[in-house]
Amino acid sequence: MSQTPTPSRAANLTEAMVNEVKRLIYSGEVQPGERLNEAAIALRMGTSRGPIREAMKELAGQGLVTAVPNRGMFVRQLSVRDMLEVYELRALVFGYAAGRACEHLTDEHRQTFERLLKAMDEACEADEGTRYYELNLDFHTLILELSRNRRAQQSYDEYVKQLHIFRRKYFNVPGNMRRSNVEHREIFDAIVAGDAPRARLAAEQHVLSGRSRLLASFDDPSPLPA
User: Fold this and answer.
1) Strand order across the beta sheet in which 65-68 lies
2) Which of 103, 135, 194, 209 sits between 20 and 30 A of 81, alpha carbons compared?
3) Longest Cα pair distance anywhere in the chain, in angstroms?
């Protein structure tokens, strides 16, 4: 007789499923717009479909997959034109947040920034793109939290969700990770200095530079189907 997983074991199993589906998406084994077959993934992972369904809910919340009524779960898809427009809005909101962060930085926040920057440097040296990407998200999230503007946080979170599929790939290139973290340090230095205009400009330029790096990484720059 099968045993019902304990809450902690179920949570760990769901997390493992989330990480596996992320790996499939980030590695390109499943492409934007492709349907995710829950039964096939469950068979592949040697588990029931329950943890897969829970993982899909979490991934939908992160913006990586989307539900299509009566058809199932699909990898999120965005055209290049839409991506560029989202990047422009993301740059404006991130710049605003970085400027506001100057007003609310504490020693505890500064120490957290320094830990994140050090960890991202280590991820660069180890060529760990996935680890760098997750730390990068934490760095940006902290700046948005320091803006103390919930609507800015909500808007930025939605922009990030829409861009996951595009952005994750270019962090597989060590040079992109290193350039990105140099820009992070410039933003951090401006925030620590309390220089709001410089922080805002550095943050906006960071996002737009990321957009340029992303475009340069495309093998085929033609728009993807929306």
Assistant:
1) 35-36, 72-75, 65-68
2) 135
3) 64
Helix intervals (H) in 30-128: 38-45, 49-62, 80-104, 107-126
Over its C-alpha atoms, the chain yields an Rg (Å, rounded) of 19
Tracing tokens 């199932």 back to the chain, one arrives at 72
CB contact at 8 A, 50 and 11: no
Read off the pLDDT of residues 140-179 as tens digits, 9 standing for 90 and up: 999 999 999 999 999 999 888 878 777 766 676 778 899 9
| Per-residue model confidence (pLDDT) at position 2 | 45
Using the 8-state DSSP alphabet, how is residue 73 labeled?
E
Question: How many whole angstroms separate alpha carbon 113 and alpha carbon 221?
Answer: 35
Percent of the chain beyond pLDDT 70?
89
Instruction: Report the residue count for the chain.
Output: 226
Q: How far apart are CA 99 and CA 16, in angstroms?
A: 37
d(CA 49, CA 55): 10
Element (DSSP H or E) covering residue 127: none
Closest residue by Cα to residue 177 from 217, 215, 132: 132
Per-residue pLDDT reduced to its tens digit, 2-37? 455 566 666 778 888 888 888 887 777 888 889 988
